[in-house]
Amino acid sequence: MPPDLTLSPHTDPLAIYRYRDGLYAVDLLTAAITEFDFFTRLAAQPAGLAGICLMLGTAPRPTDVMLTLFAANAFIRRAPDGACHVTELAREHLVSTSPFFLGPYYASLKERPVVKDFVTILRTGQPANWGSYQNEKTWTEAMLTDEFATTFTAAMDCRGFTLGPALAKKIPTAGRTRLLDIAGGSGIYACSIAAHHPHLAATVFERPPVDGIARRMIEKRGYTPRVSVVAGDMFTDPLPTGHDIHLFSNVLHDWDVEKVRPLLAASFAALPPGGLLVIHDAHLNAEKTGPLPVAAYSALLMSVTEGKCYSIAEMERLLAEAGFGAFSFAETSTDRSLLTALKP
């Protein structure tokens, strides 16, 4: 029988998610200590993001992720003028002139492949290949192949059985009839929302070959009458019209700001007045000082995609630029949360 997508697990898998999502944080810290001697240099010369990039010879996106991770760990603090300073904790244990310096403790880890990847990513701003995929393709290129697309979509699909019901319970659907799940993967979120809100129909918008995977998975779950699939590329094709809810679920974190902006603009253009945009993701707080598990997850995303985890304030600024207003925020499950906005 198809699974009941209205059910939530009886136990809390948070710790299991955090092991996987935070896996790369230690490698990023190791790269900062062993390759860049970051904390020693920052202690001598406090600076903001641009100044740190100049000091280290690094790119803004990965450097921003690194600074957020260190702020969430209380290794650095941000002053009102934006300058970053080392904390007493870092000054004692991460600055090389301290008698309590732990750099040699991390030196044995510097040859780990992901540490080496982070050194390159920090310097170039370009992501590495997906950690378990042993060829030279980036994640975006690999997703065009049937083998990788199937494996990756299955990985994202399985977490949807926990994240989907939590998301569906928080979406305000009253008075709305049709949802567009943009880059919706297997369709697990569209199906979960349809299961919780019987008055809604949904469309999954995905590029090949994932659109075919989505059709098969939706049919397997018995939702074909209410959840359809339209093939298309969200970056190059117009979004399907006729939907009064748009959903980006675990999508925007794969892209840098310059690619997120046109996606939000496309959503604004396709939604009717009063339309609802829902962003389901792992969000940082407005100050970008945590939560620590989200900052750690951002390190993983930064390493294998073109994106990162965005703060609530960053995302609201981007939404406002696109024309959206009336923002609302709610936590859902396993360090994920929901940010909604309305088209006036």
Characterization of the model:
With 344 residues, the protein is α/β, with parallel strands linked by helices. The chain has two domains: 14-140, Arc Repressor Mutant, subunit A; 147-288 and 305-342, Vaccinia Virus protein VP39 (Rossmann fold). It is built from 15 helices and nine strands. A seven-stranded mixed beta sheet has the order 5-4-3-6-7-9-8, with helices on both faces. It has a two-stranded antiparallel sheet with strand order 1-2. Strand 4 (201-206), helix 12 (210-220) and strand 5 form a beta-alpha-beta unit. It starts with 13 loop residues before the first helix and ends with a strand. The relative contact order is 0.14.
CATH topology (level 3) name of the largest domain: Rossmann fold
- Using the CA coordinates, give the radius of gyration: 21 Å
Counting DSSP H or I runs of 4 or more residues, the number of helices is 15
Overall structural domain count: 2
CATH superfamily of the largest domain: Vaccinia Virus protein VP39
The helix/strand class is alpha/beta
Helix and strand succession?
A: HHHHHEEHHHHHEHEHEEHEHHEE
Keywords, separated by commas or semicolons:
single chain, 344 residues, alpha/beta, Arc Repressor Mutant, subunit A, Rossmann fold, seven-stranded mixed β-sheet, two-stranded antiparallel sheet, 9 strands, 45% helix, elongated
